[in-house]
Amino acid sequence: MTEDSTAKSATAPLAARLRQRLRSFEPLYLAFLGLLAIPSYVFDSLAVLEIFEIFYLAFLWPFVAPLLEAVLQRGTDADEATEPTDWIDMGHWSEYAVWLLSIPLTFLNPFVLAQDFRQWLGTLLALARHRGSVPEAGDDDRQVSYRLPFDGAWTVVNGSHSRDYSHSWFPLNQRYAYDFVITDAEGRTRPDGAAASVGNYYCYDEPVLAPADGVVIDTFDGDLEPSRAGGFSHPFKRDIRGNYVVVQHAPDEYSCLAHLVPGSVTVEPGERVERGQRVGRCGHSGNSSEPHLHFQLQDQPNFALATSRPIAFDDVALEWPGAEAPITEPHLGADGNDAGARDVALPGDLADGTYRARAFLTAGQRVAHVGHDADADRTGSHGIGERRSDHAVKAGASRRRPASVALGRVGFGACVGGVATIVASIFVSPLTVAGLLGVAAAAAPLAGIADRSAHDADARLEHRLETGGTAVGVAAVGAVVAWYGLADPAVGFGPRALGASAFLLGFLADAAAGEYDRRRLRESFHDVVSPTAA
Questions:
Q1: Which end of the chain has fewer CB within 10 Å, C or N?
Q2: Do 270 and 315 sit in the same domain of this protein?
Q3: Is the pLDDT at 90 greater than 90, yes or no?
Q4: How far apart are CA 471 and CA 160, in angstroms?
Q5: Could you tell me which InterPro entries the record lists for this protein (predicted)?
Q6: Closest by Cα among 413, 327, 373 to 147
Q7: Domain boundary at 393, 410, 441, which?
């Protein structure tokens, strides 16, 4: 932050100062104290530890913080704006209230709840994998140069390499993620006075592009999408990412493009994609309050287990419509530190933008890609600042093994069944819980029919393993709960302990499959590229 902006923050009004404090406040670490309540589920003599369950409320912070931000923003006058996103119309505060009031639905959707908890445990594994030293923006050791995953001018509504404006500093898998939307000159994401129908948002159904050459590792194209935004998301979503595409670009570099329109995914696992190729369209599926594109670079294919990697995009035109840039970019090196003007054709209303050969982005910027992928240079090295275009990935050569796919999905199904057991056993008997899990297991394969993106035989097999594996995991937990309800064994613990145990065992199975995939794909990546003609 510059000296001028620091001085302004010292004299800023109360609402502005509170907003700055809000960005640096991180209570999510307290959620781990809730784990101290787990022994009380097993041993009646430790029932006093149930008091630590109150720390689970910290998981609600990511939902509450945007509402507080919206309220405080309304208390900040235009001439008192201090945040780089103040120029963006983030929607009426009631839209955040709708999002907040929809939180109880999360606890009725075990798919979402299981994925949320898996992210937190995945963070512990990520810390162990990196020996406590996770990637930072100043340690940019990427092997591939990336372009923005869209054409035209978009706005960074969320995300940064800086903690204060990051997508979510914790958990680690989304630390350096970005949310992109399209705004008009007034910072609105849909026309003034237009209804919150998804089709009215400027970014809805816009093409989403591969940021670099690579191999598709995972896709999902059958999640549900509501017809209305304005804080609403679909209550029966099956993945917090909604519809998504995961592409491997290097041994430990995977891009994830999420919240796509149902039925818009144009690629499938094992397929080679080229830089700038369309892989889907921007939508409103998954955990989404309005249409937007979620993009992140991660170090492994499993979303919950991954560590987010900082990413500097190449050939970027950018501007700060609402404020002077308060974020100091990390040093990019001699080849990528060009911040001067350049005689290039910038898109439309970014004609006065600044060109950067490579740039880390921050919330509040409007950005556009200004490169020329079609006639990219096909010679030279593939280091940072240059396109990795001297190698082409062989289609279908790098993909997850069927055994690891099945194990991971059975583990995920056990996680789903586990959290459903924990929540449902508060209100109903174990036999009723078992019956509900049985119904869910039977319905899981039917729900998977909606995902018809796979045309390749191997991709169809992978899809069947995913939907069937989830059903098997849920059914296994249901069988154990049914046994408990029928036999009423004197084992000294209740159904909540069964649910917690099922979740942990399922997570370990999923983690084992994910780590196997990460290691195998890392080792095999160099074997699945072949030189191409210059």
A1: C
A2: yes
A3: no
A4: 38
A5: Cell_wall_metabolism_enzyme, Dup_hybrid_motif, M23ase_b-sheet_dom
A6: 373
A7: 393
User: Which residue segment(s) compose the domain that 497 sits in?
Assistant: 402-527
Same domain, 251 and 207: yes
Are 514 and 379 found together in one domain?
Answer: no
CB atoms within 10 A of CB 124: 12
Q: Which SS3 state, helix, strand or coil, does residue 231 take?
A: coil
User: How far is residue 424's CA from residue 429's CA, in Å, rounded to a whole number?
Assistant: 8
CATH of the domain at 346: 2.70.70.10
Residues 339/344/345/351 CA torsion (nearest 10 deg)? 40
Scan for tokens 């974020």, then name that residue: 327
pTM metric for this prediction: 0.83
Nearest Cα residue to 162 out of 20, 276, 271, 17: 20
Specify the number of domains making up the chain.
Answer: 3
Model confidence pLDDT, tens digit, residues 401-432: 888 999 999 999 999 999 999 989 989 999 99
pLDDT at 482 over 70: yes
DSSP-assigned states of every residue in 343-412: -----GGGTTPEEEEEE--BTT-EEEE----TT----S---TTS---SEEEPTTSS---HHHHHHHHHHH
42, 163: one domain: no
Residue 353 near residue 155, CB atoms below 8 Å: no
